[in-house]
Amino acid sequence: MRTVESVILEKIAPITQKTVAEDIGVNNTNLSRYLSDKGHRLSFPEVCALLDRIGITGDALAAAVGSDRVVVIAREEYDSLRFFARKGIGG
Which residue numbers delimit the HTH cro/C1-type domain (predicted)? Predict the structure, then answer.
């Protein structure tokens, strides 16, 4: 399963960090440090601008959060469920 971090980085890559930084009005170095978790922080409006710039929309976030098709469970529980499901179908 892809992480949110990997999705964001994949969406930034073809645009380039420099272009995204310019488009959302932050210094390229600050964006780079933010993305690599080197101590720089972006403000909430800057994070929202970043998500908007790379195409992660409010509708997509709302759909993911509000979807009754998505359930979050602990990895151990998921692994156990898969194990017993496979046993049940003879796998």
Answer: 15-61
- Domain ranges for the chain: 4-87
CATH number given to 4-87: 1.10.260
Q: Where are the alpha helices (DSSP H) in 1-91?
A: 4-12, 17-24, 28-35, 44-53, 58-66, 75-88
- What is the DSSP code (8-state) at residue 17? H
pLDDT, one tens digit per residue, over 8-60 is: 889 999 999 999 999 999 999 999 999 998 878 899 999 999 999 998 877 76
Taking Cα atoms as reference points, which of 90, 19, 50 lies closest to residue 40?
50
Rounded-to-10 torsion of CA 80, 85, 87, 91:
-120
Q: What is the pLDDT of residue 49?
A: 94
Q: Which of 52, 50, 51 is nearest to 21 (CA)?
A: 50
